[in-house]
């Protein structure tokens, strides 16, 4: 039988067939040993083949094959620095929720996420949430950030999960697709999903005042079928986003505004750091490229990954 993984709890996987039947499945023993470096060999969104296990009292399945992935979102495993964690796979669209404060989302985090989405060819949309709570200065900051990312080519939408502002635009983008919602804990993912599809009733938690940091409410990624011909994958809140398996020479290609200028650099293999006659640095000096984008790029080139979890609480 073939189905799609809707939920993973580490050892058991909820798999749904095309006919809508749901089975709890586990992995065939040898499957774990095929040199897979990720902490989770199977991810939500994967298509798998499984056999029914009739020996047990409850009808369960044994997964014996994973289909090739169209794409996936991957990050460094939080506890095992040399391993990776696949957050979800076979995604059509990813929404990154951004909040200016309560909790703060910094541009370095946004850029790391967008680089990963570009690398795996997944369309990304930035949702600036909680705009109903912002004063004029904070709204100006939202407008500036939206201007920066729209100029690059990313779609940016200011929303309020609480008041429903612009959620119709989000739903229109989601129709007919598998969408993933992600961002720091506390940015309002579960509130947003509940506003889009109230019958799901996902758990929400208040912001921790200690660090203006969100409380984790989602511990595992999970896919849901929605009433308007759409699927969403709700993910755990992410504190940091370590980039995985990228050569220094290719990182600039995942910054669209850098890639567009690459042909104008003197050297074909220009890293846009110390090379002479670099079109990217010239554009930076003319304010044609955002300084925050260049800063996050340099951090990635220099492998400044030891701070990728901690630097989100320090103002840039």
Helix-strand blueprint:
Blueprint: E1 2-8, E2 13-17, E3 22-27, E4 47-53, E5 60-66, E6 72-76, E7 84-89, E8 93-98, H1 107-119, E9 123-128, H2 136-152, E10 155-158, H3 167-174, E11 178-182, H4 189-196, E12 207-208, E13 213-214, E14 222-225, E15 231-234, H5 248-251, H6 256-259, H7 279-285, H8 291-301
Parallel strand pairs: 3-5, 8-9, 8-11, 9-10, 11-15
Antiparallel strand pairs: 1-2, 1-4, 2-3, 4-5, 6-7, 12-13, 14-15
Helix pairs in contact: 1-8
Give a summary of the structure in a few sentences:
With 316 residues, the chain is α/β, with parallel strands linked by helices.
Largest sheet: 6 strands, mixed
Mean pLDDT, all residues: 83
In the sheet with the most strands, the strands line up as: 10-9-8-11-15-14
Elements, N to C (H/E): EEEEEEEEHEHEHEHEEEEHHHH
Fraction of residues in helix:
10-25%
Number of helices: 8
Gap between N and C termini, in Å? Answer: 51 Å
General form:
globular
